[in-house]
Write a structure and sequence with these properties.
Number of strands: 0
Order of helices and strands: HHHH
Radius of gyration: 34 Å
Number of helices: 4
Shape: elongated
Strand content: under 5%
Helix content: 55-70%
Largest sheet: none
Distance between the termini: 94 Å
């Protein structure tokens, strides 16, 4: 008895798994993320005068701390804390 051309595909689970992995990698590689920054966002990211003044104040405080001359007013601190938590 001779059986020819049964029309069954050759089943190789390893080869099938490998081809699905390659297709997934190709799909991932073709997708890219893009970002667009609006003019308003660019304007907001620019350095403002407030930021410059704040950075100067921070540098002054850091210099005073390093020199050991930084003093904290306990009454002012307590008042600010109370005002913050009473909001």
């Amino acid at each position: 008895m001779k059986i020819n051309n049964v029309n069954l595909p050759i089943v190789n689970p390893y080869k099938a798994n490998e081809s699905t992995i390659q297709k997934a990698k190709q799909h991932v590689n073709t997708q890219t993320d893009k970002i667009e920054i609006s003019s308003k966002a660019k304007q907001l990211s620019e350095t403002s005068s407030f930021t410059i003044e704040r950075n100067d104040r921070i540098q002054d405080i850091q210099a005073q701390i390093e020199a050991g001359t930084y003093k904290v007013d306990a009454r002012e601190l307590a008042g600010n804390l109370a005002a913050y938590f009473n909001k």
